[in-house]
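user: can you give me the structure for this one chain? tokens are fine.
assistant: on it. calling the predictor now.
[tool input]
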Amino acid sequence: MSLPKPSELSEILRPAAQQDAFTQELQGPDYRFLAAKVLPDGTYVGIQGLLTTYAICIGITPMTAFQRRYCYLHLSDCIEAYSNLKQGEDVPIGWVARRPETLEDIEAKRRPPRNQ
């Protein structure tokens, strides 16, 4: 996916109907999320820029940065996955790392790479 036009980007990152005081706080100087919204089931989600990746954080609370986090190499991929979230239980696609790691993730790291 390429990045949307600037006129469309704001509504994707911060849908007007999914904003409240907490989403505004998340996008402020204390939390520094690039985007945040509240899903219809009440789950707060946002996009954060990390050192070398961009992350979708799901289950944000005033005391917890995330319950689950999915990292992406490219901002455009992160935005596309973020825009497709409908409820807190959704698992975004296309991520390169996630937290907390699952047993499946740990086992995959232990396997030797396949010969190409």
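assistant: here you go. Helices lie at 6-13, 21-26, 75-83, 103-110. The chain is about 25% helix and 20% strand.
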